[in-house]
Every structure is written in structure tokens, then in C-alpha cells.
Design goal:
Layout: E1 4-9, E2 21-25, E3 31-34, H1 39-47, H2 49-54, H3 61-85, E4 91-95, H4 101-109, E5 115-119, H5 126-131, E6 135-137, E7 149-155, H6 164-171, E8 175-186, E9 201-202, H7 205-214, E10 217-228, H8 229-232, H9 238-252, H10 272-278, E11 286-287, E12 291-300
Parallel strand pairs: 4-5, 4-7, 5-6, 7-8
Antiparallel strand pairs: 1-2, 2-3, 3-9, 8-12, 10-11, 10-12
Helix pairs in contact: 3-4, 3-10
Length: 301
Amino acid sequence: MNDISFIHTYRNLNSVFNNCSIVQCNHCQMVFVNPMPDEVLLEEYNSGYFDNAHGGLQTHPLTVAFHSAINLLRVLYVERFIEKEKISVHRVLEIGPGGGHFARQWMKRNPQTSQYTGVESDKSCHTKLISSNVDVFLSMDEVPADREFDLVVISHVLEHTSNPGDFIKNCTRLLKQSGILFIEVPCKDFEHKKLDEPHLLFFDKGPMELFLSGLGFNSIETSYYGKTISDLRKPISFINKCKEKMRNQLLSRGILFPYSGFEKGLEEMNDPLERACVKPFKAHIEQKEPSWWLRAICIKK
């Protein structure tokens, strides 16, 4: 226990996370939950993740537009790496595809994709994924062993796992040599959110790079995107809350022009509603300091 430092008591609503604390490893600086929740209870919680953590899949047009937009930005991030490394991608495996926003954006821009496989533990998402031409399974154990993938996508999943090393090994066992792994996680969100639930791991660049290199990946790149944590910690003024409410009302009524202009990083986002919904979060802006999201991409040796 001398190798870890206490940060604060875990802040949660669901009893699965009772009696947990957030601590930091004094060697690698990784921040994580200690002790981890009971595995059986955690698996049950995650099997209904969208209901338990988010009240179900969100269907409001502004929320859908935001998720579509931010997943396009993730796709563009992966495409830039693919182009730089000159790697061909035809078969994709996505872990935790949820409502399928990344899959739809990927297949729209990459018609050469011959197979898109998804592993989603929440059955409530399966109908939507199947309608998006995702070949979906409940677990990695169900994925046919003869499949080989060029790209594995794990977006906002790793932070929910209690044994990340074994998790990544299992998810990438069908990734070919010189294949690509893309991960996005929240960056140290315990520093700016009121609740820690449902996250178990809290990454930053250094721990993420150590983690991936230790698992045998190379050409590792990590990047911060979105509002900086220092900005996220600032209280929102009454005036800004009123501006945000007015903005959402105008967008809901189809009045987009005050908010939907192009700017650097959004050149390939053609939908004005998507541009308007994602711009305030700065998901298209790479930052120099810890920010809302941490993106990591690397190659399997």
C-alpha cells in the first residue's frame, strides 16, 4: 500500500461502487479505483451500461448530432495516422460501439471496408448496430477465431475495465501484426466531474504510453483534445448558462447560422448541425495541456 497515494473517496450513485477510493500509483502515476468493485456486480452493471449510466441511448437530435460529430473527428484522427504510416485497413473490430456512431462515420468514408465487427455487452444497442451493418457479438469469445483485423477501435471503454492489460490483450489477439489500435478515454476526469461513476481508470499521456509500450505496441502517439481541464474546473457563470440555453433552443428550432461556421479542424464536417453541436466542446482542437479527452494510437509489433 506504500506504492499508492490516496486522492479522494469515490463519488458514486450506484452501490456497485460503494467503499471504493481513487488512488495514484507512485511509480507510473496511473490513477485508478482501489479496491476494484466486485467483478460479478460490475459485469451486471455494464451489461445494462446505457440504462445504468446514461438512462438509455440518447435520442435527442442535438445529442445525436454531437455524437455523430465527435465520432467523425475520431475517424479523421485515425485516418491521418493510417495515411502517415501507409497501412491499408479493410477489416475493423470495434469494442463497445454503443449506438454505432463511429461505425457509421467510418463506413461512410471508407467504403473499402470489407468487414466491420462489433463487440457490445449491452444488448439494447444490438438492433441499432445491426441496422448499421455491424456484425455484432456480446463478447470477444464469440468472435470467430479465424477473423483477422487491420484496426481495433476502443473508444470510451478502457476506463470501465478493472484489468486493462488483460482486456487489451484479449481485444487485440485477432489484430494482425502491424495492425493499428486506436483508444480514446477521458483524461483525468476525476479532477473536474462531480461524480466518478462509472469510471475505474483515469489516464494521462505518460501512464497511457507506458501501458501501451509494455503491451508490445510501438509508434505510439497520444494527444489531448477538447476543453482543457483547467477550463472545465471553472464554474459556469449565470450569463454563460443563459447563453447555452438560448443556443440549444435556437439549434432545436433549426436556427444554425450563428453557431455553424467552419473553423480549423472542422473542414471535413459538412453537416452544419453537427458543427454547431460539437464546436463549444472544442473536440476538434488539440491542446498542449490535459484536456477533456485523451486519444492514443499505435501499431502492434
